[in-house]
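Notes, Module 5: Reading structure tokens.

Key idea: the token line is not a picture. It is a compressed description, and you learn to read it the same way you learned to read a sequence, by spotting repeated patterns. We will look at two proteins. The first is printed below with its tokens.
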Amino acid sequence: MKIVLASNNKGKLAELQSMLEPLGVELIPQGQLFTGEAEEPFHTFVENALAKARFASQHTGLPAIADDAGICVEAFGGLPGVQTAYYATQFGYEKSDANNVRAMLEQMEGKDNRRATMVSTLVAVRSPQDPEPLIAVGRVRGEITREPRGANGFGFDPVMFIPELGHTFAELPTAVKNAYSHRGRASKQLLDMLHDNWL
């Protein structure tokens, strides 16, 4: 079964492809099929993921999966949330994972409450007008470190410390990270939903 991934993020593609492989799903990044990206005007992960999935399905005629994920920092009232990818730009930095980490550490300086939650919302639609999208949400609670640790992963992985594992996501082997991550948890839910409802 071919499904378009409503993203061109190589990290997301690799993680999701490995998790969906057991179902025999071929995940194709939307950039291989068309140019352009959906607008994401909403303030919640689920609304933005649904908009992206419908957009990708409309432009390809294929079922689509979209992921909207981010980090919600307790000391910032849950922000940056859906603006996670662009976090650094509000502080004058160019958009990049490294700048996001840098900006986060600068903004967290002097803060004792370092609790944060990484959230991944995966939405799958069979068609652009699918009235019954499959929606899976994965969450992982942790703490923002005071300096980057580890070289694996992407995004905020080097500063997201998971107390139960004793490491940041970037310090973990890929298989371990995928098993515990917000995207891993959402993917497992979605895997079950796809199996039960689509296949």
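Here is the second protein, with the sequence above and the tokens below, as before.
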Amino acid sequence: MSKVLLVTGGSRGIGAAVARLGAARGYAVAISYLRNRAAAEDVVAEIVEGGGQALAVQADVAQEGDVQRLFREVDATCGPLSALVNNAGVLETQMRVDEMDAARLQRVFATNVTGSFLCAREAVRRMSTRHGGRGGAIVNVSSRAARLGSPGEYVDYAASKAALETLTLGLAREVAAEGIRVNAVAPGIIDTEIHASGGDPGRVERVKEAIPMKRGGQAEEVARAILWLLSDEASYSTGAILDVAGGR
């Protein structure tokens, strides 16, 4: 029976790279997407054409009912969940904290924090030996912003990722004796579409000189770190936060 990997926000960027690499490593892969059905279907088609098994499910992780439906569809189509990558996240336009309204904060925290909690909850209910599961692994996609703060740009995003790192630490200790490992990766400046979402599509080029390695990272470099944390090679690692940030 194939191991089953669920990647939230798997239609583009880091999520899509994780889905492709996971399939290459032998996982049956399910991805969730919010709006871009065509991009999600392209990822699925690429995996299937390569001989893998893949499924795309539309779901807003900020909505509890959507999360429950997502996990039920994965159960029914792919089988028992082995691994979860909490990757879905949103980034709003760059601005200072004194310009932010409550609606913006609610959008960011609903997806980046509440969504990750809900998905982790559903994964634990399926994986934990306490609930009759066979164990598994969770990787949360944080950001170096959690410890740098992103002043003048995305302090709300940075704060949401700091909450995700605390979820990682607390949940890891909570379920360590139940067969589940929980870790996080903290990417730095990665060359994906998320910068355009924040109104700064040229951000990688603009800030690369501040990175010790003098370049932005690639989604595939983050994916390799995630797949290592999911693998048996990381069997004694839980509660870890692995920076993938070129030294920054």
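Summary for the second protein:
- The longest helix spans residues 102-127.
- The mean pLDDT is 95.
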